[in-house]
Write a structure and sequence with these properties.
heterodimer, A: 706 residues, alpha+beta, Beta-Lactamase, five-stranded parallel sheet, 19 helices, 21% strand, B: 125 residues, alpha/beta, Rossmann fold, 5 helices
Amino acid sequence: MARRSRPESVYPTAGGAEVASATAAEETGPSTPTGVIRIVVLTPGEDPLGGPSPMSVETTAALARLGDPVELLRALDADELGSMVGDPSIDGVLFDRLPLGKVAEGLARIPFEGPPAIVVIDGDGEAEALEAFRSGASDCVHFGSDYENVLPVVLLEQVQRWRGERRRRLSEQRIRFLEELNTGIVSAMPAGLVVVDAGGLIVSENPEFARRFPSRSEAGASEFLAARLPPELMEAVQALEGGGSGDEPSLQLVRVADDEGTALAYEVRHRILDGSDHALLVLSDVTESEWLSDRLESLRRDTRDIIENINSALIVVDLAGRITFANPAAERILGGRDGDLGGRQIDDWFGPPGSGSHPIEACLVDGTRSRGAETLLHRADGSWIPVGISCSPRLDGAGRARGVVAVFQDLSEIKELELQVRQTEKMASIGQLAAGVAHEVNNPMGFIHANLHQMSEYLTDLEKYFEATDRLQRAAVEGDLEVVRAAAEDVQTVAREIDLEFVRSDFEKALMESGEGAERIRHIVKDLRDFSRPDLPARSAADVNQAVDSTANIVYTMMKHDVLLEKEYGELPKIEAYPMQLKQVFMNLLVNAHQAIEARAEATGAGEKGIIRIETEEVGTEVCVRISDTGVGIPEDARARIFEPFFTTKPVGAGTGLGLSTSFNIVERHGGRIAVESEEGEGTVFEVWLPVNAPKPEDLAETGEA
Amino acid sequence: MSPARPVVLLVDDEPRVLSALERALRREGFSIETASNGSEALDRVASGPPVDLVISDYKMPGRNGIELLTAIREDHPDTARILLSGWASEIDPGALRAAGCAAVLTKPWDDAELKAEIHAALESS
């Protein structure tokens, strides 16, 4: 045991003994472990609080020579020792001249690979030392003359060895973990990994590579990469080998078709491994992500195309009411150029200046959506244009408001057309009405005119008679009987000639008949006046019965030959309305009913009159005007379309195709609705429902109305 | 009554018009008859002494004036026809031609014109 006979060394003493020699420190310094050395000492049977030290003076002195601070931990028995040595910070265990039995007991508790155990043996007992080694001691020190020099050397050596061992084991563990992690990653990676040598032979590959590019040769035989990869990929690899020498792996995108002909996209990365002539290739299948990004790109392009090219203006507004996006149509309407609208306030265009009341504002304030709302847009040149606008709130993923998307259209042209269409329909209605009224006025005018002519002829005749009677009168005054007799005969002759009796009675009859005709004309004119009383600029309390009745009276004049008109008016409250507009609706419905009756009479050849029935009633909060006819009815396939503009079932020239669509619009603007029921060959029932309390009136007055 | 007195049939659903026409034509030397609708007029033309001239209104319940005159033209082509309409513009020109009227007059009519047209129609038939 040469080690126990080391030459004496001088150690600095603990506790401030200034024997330390610089020379000695230089000799031994580098071997000193850093930090506190923690030693467990088995001190059986001793009261830990009893003595000042568990060790002999010699051992204490020896430990002081270690140079490093020593922490002594007492174990009172083998069990305690066993539990203490599990702590990896324990550097060693010291058995200081204990009976061999106790030593063996303690040694048994130190695990294999545990801290080193040093046994101090009293005297020169070689056999005892042997026994201690057998029991698992790391080293033995004889308690002899050089004990104080040997123990520190032995202890230090053991502690260093143990600490080195411990570090090595830790490193090994870490390496094992990293290796396992690496293997796990490489084999689980969804990309093919392969390492090739400078000659192109495969050195190693991961399961994904093997799965995607299966080997064709016997297991274990080394293969060339070229034998495994399709030519397109191989070309890419060769191209990368040419250039990929930098730190960053070089990359290529390659398209290949698999066995089933499906097009696949691979991303190939190439890297020369450090310190070798091996290259790592990574082949990732990016087919799906490429498809997704293609799809995303095409969606983006489509969306952009649509937004850029739609005729509607589209703007995106942030929560502060600033424009963050405007498409070209929006720029045209708002009058901005080259995207200089960004950041501008929408109040610059929408709503009365400073009022902030417009659909976009409403949407910003409480998320109110609008669809096709009409509002006015103020342009930089001072003009206002009507726009139809739809607004939706923009929400983020968590449902918080981010702003508003608004789509709007310039309605100027549509408004203009609408006005023209309404005017056309109105003119057409007036034309029909004029025809009916003219016909009705012409009949009495005809006979009044003829009677007047006849009465003036009667007057000429009577003139002759009056002349004769004048002559008779003069003769009577003169008193010449002959002359009187001749004059009287003359009167009789004239009376006979002119058929005096007839003239007198027929004159009276003609007068009476003409008077009656004039009365009829007066009536028609009154009806016409009642019918055509112009609307006030605002809605007024309207008597629906009066509106429908005055219309019926006028329209009846042109249909009385073919139609029996039945009226049953209920008691109705007055409603807020434009009576003239309502009359236009009733006139349309009555004219249609009449035409349906005419068409049926024509089809059946029956000379019977048709019936138009007008009923009015109050139902709940609504007023209903029901107009039913016994006409031809509306074919089922036409029923859905009758309210469309320009749709007509009448022969060319008989209708504009605008009557019902105009009626529909008028009723809608009054907050009401039109219902229709019809049976072919039986007749049709139209119902106009109007709310008694109409919703807040918008500006319903037609401008430029005749 | 001389057998030479032409028979003139007036057709109108409006009695006051018939009365005024009768009054106007009283001294023209015609035998005046009246009917208040198309079928009454057709019955008269089909039976009894021949009718020389029919003067008909256009708008009447049942058969209208054009239909009446067209029917008369087919069965009695020698009977002259005059349409006396309230509103001529609404009459289909093709239908009007088919009726082959000697004259089309509108209400209110001019007495002198009416008489002239009647005499012309009677002379040419």
